[in-house]
Amino acid sequence: MNFYIIIGIMLPFVGTMIGALTALFLKNGLKKSINHLLLGLASGVMIAASIWSLILPSIDITNSFIEASIGFLLGILFLLVIDRFIKVIENKNNNMLMFSVTLHNIPEGMVVGAGLSGLISSNSFFTLASVLTLSLGIAIQNIPEGAIISLPLKSKGFGNKKALSYGFISAVVEPISAIVTIILVNYIEPLMPYLLSLAAGTMFYVVINELIPESQSGKYKDLGTIGFLIGFLIMMILDVALG
């Protein structure tokens, strides 16, 4: 079990670093078609994971929709405030992209940590397949994020070491956030219904506000739609069939 927990913690980190590594090999980043497909795939996985692995367990734990609704709204509000804060900073400094991505990665790490915490505490509402698939979905979404940090630095003449170091800084906050959440599991277990639905709210916000609009832009929007459907079905099948 410890081996799978480590995998779950590290997958989002690996996804961001894969994206950052593209700065070493690709001058223009990922192909737009591949990028749209990945964004759609990640969107589908994250929405399905939010429903089956976060919202439904939150409701089942308390047998009530109240805690799930409160946590979900708080998650949306949390990222809405963060986005507004980021936009204010970016209006003053155009070099705050890394800070923006890093800040968004913190709740993503907490999402993984919350799922793994439920698994560690032997909560019957969590399965190994659902938690790992959730982590994988976030990792896929992190690939283009890692690329948009490192590639601009390369285009400005910075070396590989600096480009990768900035990607690493953005990526490492996710396993740290996940580990902190797991360590505090005994203290946060009574709050688990709120935390699960809060995590779902943050994921819905990211998907609706960032991933779907990006996947539906340009001439490859059909690939974004196909990716979404494939990702949703994969997550649904894994969670229901293996859960």
Helix content: over 70%
Largest sheet: none
In terms of per-residue confidence, which ranges show pLDDT below 50 for 5 or more consecutive residues? none
Strand content: under 5%
Q: Which sequence of SSEs, written as H and E, runs from N to C?
A: HHHHHHHHH
Radius of gyration using CA atoms only:
17 Å
How many distinct helices?
Answer: 9
Give the quaternary arrangement of the chains. Answer: single chain
Domain module count: 1
What class would the helix/strand composition place it in?
mainly alpha
| E-strand count | 0
> So what's the overall shape?
globular
- Give the end-to-end Cα distance, rounded to a whole number of Å: 16 Å
- Which whole number gives the mean pLDDT? 80
Concise summary:
The protein has helices spanning 2-25, 32-62, 66-92, 97-120, 128-155, 160-183, 185-188, 192-215, 221-242. With 243 residues, the chain is an all-alpha fold.
Describe the protein in words:
The chain is mainly α and 243 residues long. It has one domain. Helices cover 86% and strands 0% of the residues. Helix 3 packs antiparallel against helix 4 and helix 5 runs antiparallel to helix 6. The longest helix has 31 residues.
